[in-house]
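Below is how a single chain appears once it has passed through the pipeline. First comes the sequence as given, then the structure the pipeline wrote out for it. We keep one example in the README because the format questions we get most often are answered faster by looking than by reading.
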Amino acid sequence: PVEKVKEVSTPTTNVVSVDINQTGHLVLVMSDGTRVTTKNPIPKEVVNQNVSISNDLAALMATQEPTGFETRSTSKLEFDDETRVFTISAVNKEFSFWLHAKEVTRESESVQLPDVSGLYFIYFEPLNNELVYTDTVTSTLFLDNALVALVYWQHETQEHVYFADERHGIVMDGATHKHLHLSLGAQYRKGLRLYNFYVDQNGSSNSHAQFACDSGQIADEDLIIDIIDGDVQALSTVLNAPVYYRYGAEAANWYKTPQSAYPLILPTNSPYYFNATRPAYSHEVNGFWQLTETPNNQFVLVHIAATNDVENPIVSILGNTYNTKSAARAGANTEFAAMSGLPFAEFVRLGTV
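Resulting structure:
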């Protein structure tokens, strides 16, 4: 028979373990050290079946796991350039995530980023389960918190130039996440071939400066990122991608152009490049990064990468200029390797054009 009992307040302790003692009574050990024993013993016929009843949470509490999102399908991410406000909200009524082996439920949470250029990590912290941000990468960022998103904000143009989904799952522990992020980064899985090149042409047709990219897949630790033609970006026939470039006294001060069918910075593509007839190249002069018109009959490099950006998964990064083809080919690897402070936390280089 079931007896209706009065409502009680929300419990403040968790069950650490459940077991059957020598007298056949069910014993619950709570996280505050108290023990709860059932009034009546478990029937002998149940005990004699050698059934072990266990719900041991001690290991989870010791490792502070799981932490992360059981699923990404119940929440959505948004960033507003006008207010610099990032929001994670429920697709339908509410969403949940885990912090230190505890499930937390929310309808919507927001945080405003400062009006200072840089890359920001947005996450739920375990003390008050609040949504916060940081621009500093430390071990505790991955070990103690539930990452949600990454945003690179550009103060000068008042827009974000990178927006990534970081809602990792609850199977991967924080130590593994830290190791993979800091040592391996994003990994190539399949597809993403660059093709449809018109090689060694004279530039008399627009198609001579265009190419395409296959659909494909990369992995950001436990997150599989499918990059599909026509999803948020046109890839086939002609790749449409933004061009990232550095400008100013800081090597990590990044800007981007809108998506374009040409992986180049042409006059009017950037507020810092105009009064020219040929595409720009990126270089440093006396500690200041700038855009300069590519000299006639020279070659400018553009590096192509796949990222976890939710709006522009395939991007191009503007490089330097070279007098000959052989010099440009030699510079393709050394130039990209020397780039520091890229705005992407996760990326896979696909090639250099």
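The longest helix spans residues 325-337.

See the next section for the split statistics.
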